[in-house]
Design goal:
Blueprint: H1 3-29, H2 35-47, H3 68-73, H4 82-107, H5 116-126, H6 128-136, H7 140-156, H8 166-186, H9 195-199, H10 203-220, H11 227-238, H12 249-256, H13 260-281, H14 289-307, H15 320-324, H16 336-346, H17 357-393
Helix pairs in contact: 1-4, 1-5, 1-6, 4-5, 4-6, 4-7, 7-8, 8-10, 13-14, 13-17, 14-17, 16-17
Protein name: Arabinofuranosyl transferase
Subcellular location: Cell membrane
Keywords: Cell membrane, Membrane, Transferase, Transmembrane, Transmembrane helix
Length: 394
């Protein structure tokens, strides 16, 4: 038996057992953090014609944070009994994560019959991101599939993809627009990813990606009983920075009360590194489209997580496409520093310590922050190294 066959034989049982335990034991049991009840309750109020944004956004947690358009799209979650809908939602999230991993496996040129696919499933479902997404019962697994669908559409729809006809490439660009539009509707932090079709001058994807959230909100606005409260109550709350369950640099500032003398220079430095990595990667947009799309998307999302007002560690699932570039001839993840960073924001470790309780608590809160920041530095340095090497070689 060769090494690939041996790894595949070991990976499939591991994948099946881990998925079963995460979905049917851990997730169905639930945890103290319960994102689904908040969403289900708000959707039920919407269906019953009651006020959706009735929560006290000064202290209630978890909070309902979706726009009227997202409320309309999510309205099927309010149908049926709570337990049945929650169980179906968990299974759909798990299935979406597996489907996204399958697409990523194919994007990097591997067969689903190989060892990579089951290995990716097992490792992904062991990560903090997937574990907490399922246990908290939020929508991030479905958003992960929408993200990968967008990347697939951008790559397949590129004009340099001569393996497809022009009409087929156009269809994939429509698919990319629908996927990113739905993702933006649910979580607007996906909007910066429109940079990818913008560079390609792919107006179809951009138009559809913007039209879906705009039209959905216009349609839903008169249907939500207190839609004006979205602007008067929720939007102001979204503009604030919370000092709990927030791994962004802004969350660190709020938690430790970091002074502006340190906060702003570091924020500007990391923003410059993100921008530099994105600009330098443009060199590969025509030479290696898959590398450019998956790497640029990952660095953009890193910037969103680290630099915005809210970055939750389980968002790191959306960086899986960047990790999958390790199986391409060139990748940021061909360096040990990138894997160290990924371990910090993906490993489900409890750092609580009786010897150093404060340090342990801080590590639990901000290991993801350190991982994101380190990966930004590694990404910029690695891409700069590629650029210098290519420049020397002419």
């Amino acid at each position: 038996m060769n090494n690939q066959a041996l790894l595949r034989a070991a990976a499939w049982p591991a994948a099946v057992i881990v998925v079963f335990q995460r979905v049917f034991i851990l997730a169905l049991n639930g945890t103290l953090t319960d994102d689904f009840t908040t969403v289900h309750s708000a959707i039920r109020r919407f269906i019953d014609g009651q006020e959706v944004y009735e929560q006290a956004y000064t202290h209630v947690d978890p909070l309902y944070l979706y726009s009227p358009g997202a409320t309309l799209i999510l309205s099927p979650l309010g149908l049926g009994s709570f337990e049945a809908v929650r169980a179906i939602f968990i299974v759909c999230n798990a299935a979406a994560i597996i489907a996204a991993l399958a697409l990523l496996t194919r994007l990097v040129g591997h067969s689903l019959r190989g060892a990579l696919f089951p290995s990716a499933i097992a490792l992904a479902f062991l990560s903090e991101s997937v574990t907490n997404t399922l246990a908290f019962t939020n929508i991030n697994g479905l958003l992960f599939l929408a993200l990968v669908g967008f990347l697939w559409g951008v790559i397949r729809g590129d004009e340099t993809n001569t393996s497809l006809s022009a009409p087929a490439r156009r269809r994939w660009r429509w698919v990319a627009g629908v996927c990113i539009g739905l993702a933006i509707l649910i979580k607007p932090q996906f909007a910066p990813l429109l940079f990818l079709p913008l560079v390609r001058k792919d107006w179809r994807s951009i138009l559809v990606g913007l039209a879906i959230p705009v039209l959905s909100n216009l349609i839903a606005w008169p249907l939500v009983a207190d839609s004006s409260a979205y602007l008067s109550k929720l939007v102001p709350y979204l503009g604030t920075t919370r000092d709990f369950a927030n791994s962004s640099w802004e969350g660190v500032r709020a938690y430790f009360d970091v002074g502006p003398w340190l906060y702003y220079p570091l924020w500007l430095a990391f923003a410059a590194l993100v921008a530099a990595a994105i600009v330098m990667l443009l060199r590969w947009r025509d030479r290696d489209n898959t590398l450019w799309v998956m790497s640029t998307a990952g660095i953009i999302l890193l910037g969103v997580f680290f630099l915005s007002s809210l970055g939750q560690q389980y968002y790191s699932m959306w960086l899986f496409p960047l990790l999958f570039t390790a199986f391409l001839p060139r990748s940021i993840f061909h360096t040990w520093g990138a894997w160290l960073a990924a371990f910090l924001f993906l490993a489900p470790l409890d750092w609580s310590s009786n010897v150093a309780p404060d340090l342990g608590r801080w590590a639990n809160f901000f290991a993801g922050t350190v991982g994101w920041g380190l990966l930004i530095v590694v990404s910029a340095a690695t891409v700069f190294g590629w650029w210098q090497r290519d420049k020397r070689q002419g």
